[in-house]
Amino acid sequence: ELLWYGGYLEGWALYVEFLSNDYASTLLREHGQETEALIAQLEGHNRSLQLCLYSMIDILIHYQGASYRQIAKILENFGLSGSETTKSIYNYIVKEPCNYLKYYLGYLEILNLREDARTLWGEDYTDYRFHCFYLESGPSDFLSLRERLMAKEMEARTP
């Protein structure tokens, strides 16, 4: 493939995963399963924290040249200790640069794009409309998606 938009694709996968988690939590709550709903929310937050942490570590290693010892200390501060665990995380991130970033930064870009759509569309905003826009516009980079969102809104406002 000449062009591949990892952030668009993998960010969407993570966005849908988190959205599904939110839907599950809401459904559980509606059926009186408060504890299970909280567990579903906690699992989503834990996954988000993990991906954010690994993305930060990726930047520290590949951009700032952080050593294994520095990364092990950071992981220890998050309760991840033991040489096997820290070595495994460190070695994977060293061997697969930007792997976690395409998921997590792609997800964050989608959230920002969704907020832009909410602002632009106002009362006409729905998740369904945003999802259709996103899927029908891609795969693409996020700058082009944002420009396309703005252009479509200007077209809609022009008589």
- Largest pleated sheet: none
Helix content: over 70%
Specify the overall morphology. Answer: flat
Give the overall average pLDDT.
Answer: 94
Low-confidence stretches: none
Indicate the structural class: mainly alpha
Total helices: the number is 7
Could you tell me how far the N terminus lies from the C terminus, measured between alpha carbons in angstroms?
Answer: 40 Å
Proportion in β-strands: under 5%
Order of helices and strands: HHHHHHH
What gyration radius follows from the Cα positions, in whole Å?
19 Å
| Count of distinct strands | 0
Brief overview:
The protein is an all-alpha fold. It has helices at 6-30, 34-62, 68-77, 83-95, 99-121, 127-137, 142-157. It is flat.
Supply database-style keywords.
80% helix; 0% strand; 159 residues; flat; mainly alpha
SSE blueprint:
Blueprint: H1 6-30, H2 34-62, H3 68-77, H4 83-95, H5 99-121, H6 127-137, H7 142-157
Helix pairs in contact: 1-2, 1-5, 2-4, 2-5, 3-4, 5-7
Task: Explain this structure.
It is a single chain. With 159 residues, the chain is mainly α. It has 7 helices and no strands. The protein starts with 5 loop residues before the first helix and ends with a helix. The model has no long low-confidence stretch (mean pLDDT 94).
